[in-house]
Design goal:
Elements lengths: L3 H10 L5 E3 L3 H12 L4 E6 L8 H15 L3 E6 L3 H4 L14 H15 L10 E5 L8 H8 L4 H5 L2 H8 L6 H17 L3 E5 L3 H13 L6 E5 L25 H9 L6 H9 L9 H16 L2 H16 L9 E4 L6 E3 H9 L3 H9 L3 E3 L2 E2 L6 E3 H4 L3 E4 L3 E7 L1
Parallel strand pairs: 2-3, 2-5, 3-4, 5-6, 7-13
Antiparallel strand pairs: 1-6, 8-11, 9-10, 9-12, 12-13
Length: 398
């Protein structure tokens, strides 16, 4: 049985986790590592299928930082090979395949952004790409495939649902959990973290380690953070995300749009404490916004972001400095605003059209009418594009 200190540390490290399996395994791992005079190797694998990290990713990255601060080694696996396969978690169709150039660009950006949260000290962090070991020969691929049965794969919720509805499941998707499990073998993981949607993959990693004669990793799953809409999980594709590289002003303003009922999860999962009971919802949310900006930028920028918000939205003034957006006119002498918004604000063109249709976009404080997607160069040149309540760009047309 583990000693009391390991039980106490495992309880602290498992705070806010949904699953910590098998029961008691983390304390046992801590106890064994202490006796061997070594640190735990704590694994997180994330595929660079998109260039940006949002606060949903920060939940797991923040938990990894807790393990670092407790003296353990985090192994961050950037899945440049598994990104070519595509994680089927939560999917009803096969993911589109990214080019190697897209994966490489995303991988570098992802790594840079993750280091805003993780301690980059090489004594505490090991960054690996799974292309290091996933160039497997046929003999090794066949050995890996023998570790798992089709019946095991069909126990997975999303596969089971698609199978019952006679929807296709590709062989490529069936390979994904095997490759992710092989990552645990390659880095000899003691513990693997992931969101609750990764539970099947994490547990399968234990089976694959056992098949390769390794001790089985413990697993820990973290809750999925809801987006600013308060309904669906945070996702850039849904437009309900707060990016960790958002400007301080954007991050502050987006945080204030979180529904009151979701605020507790943001405090617990990102700041690791309960929301202050002595403050009302408005002031508690402003405190949350300041602390998130202070964490991911700086306390000084958090104060400036709050002052900016009050000036623009409380006092109803435009910002003193507005970021410029370079715009290219079409051959017809018109500026297509959905293209401008997509490039300048990082949103999809369909979302831009939807915002215009809903009356949420204006030029020089004059709202665009539904269907007004193109404006003349003379009107666009030097105009302030306002999207929603807090995003401004001054247009410079070439």
């Amino acid at each position: 049985m583990p000693s009391a200190p390991e039980e106490g540390q495992s309880t602290a490290l498992a705070r806010n986790a949904v699953d910590c399996l098998p029961e008691g395994a983390l304390a046992e791992k801590l106890d064994a590592a202490r006796k061997d005079g070594r640190r735990l190797r704590v694994k997180l694998g994330i595929d660079p299928t998109a260039p940006d990290i949002h606060l949903g990713h920060a939940v797991v990255l923040g938990k990894l930082r807790e393990f670092q601060d407790a003296g353990h080694l985090v192994v961050l696996i950037v899945g440049d090979s598994t990104a070519q396969v595509g994680d089927p978690s939560g999917r009803s169709t096969l993911r589109p395949m990214l080019s190697l150039q897209e994966i490489e660009a995303n991988a570098q950006t992802f790594q840079d952004q993750a280091l805003r949260i993780l301690d980059p000290d090489p004594e505490r962090l090991e960054v690996r790409r799974n292309s290091e070991w996933l160039g497997l020969g046929m003999t090794e691929v066949l050995r890996l495939m023998r570790t798992t049965t089709v019946a095991q794969m069909l126990e997975r919720d999303d596969f089971a649902k698609r199978w019952s509805q006679a929807q296709p499941i590709s062989m490529l998707e069936l390979m994904y959990p095997l490759l992710q499990g092989y990552d645990s073998v390659a880095v000899r993981a003691d513990l693997e973290l992931g969101g609750t949607d990764q539970k099947f993959n994490l547990l399968l990693g234990r089976d694959i380690q056992r098949a390769y004669g390794q001790p089985e990793q413990a697993i820990m799953t973290m809750p999925i953070l809801v987006g600013v809409d308060g309904r669906q999980k945070m996702s850039k594709s849904l437009g309900n995300h707060i990016g960790i590289t958002d400007s301080p002003e954007e991050m502050y303003g987006k945080t204030l749009s979180i529904p009151d009922e979701a605020m507790g999860d943001y405090y617990r999962l990102l700041l690791h404490r309960e929301p202050p009971t002595e403050l009302g919802p408005r002031d508690a949310k402003r405190l949350l916004a300041r602390e998130l900006v202070g964490w991911l930028h700086s306390p000084e920028q958090a104060q400036a972001a709050e002052a900016h918000f009050d000036r623009v939205f409380v006092e109803r003034e435009a910002p003193e400095q507005i970021e410029e957006a370079s715009v290219q006119a079409g051959r017809d002498g018109m500026v297509h605003l959905p293209d401008v918004m997509a490039q300048a604000l990082g949103i999809s063109r369909s979302e831009a059209r939807r915002l215009i249709e809903q009356g949420g976009v204006s030029l020089d404080e004059i709202p665009l009418s539904a269907g007004e997607l193109d404006v003349a160069v003379d009107r666009a040149q030097g105009a302030v594009l306002k999207v929603g309540k807090r995003r401004f760009r001054r247009l410079r047309v070439s």
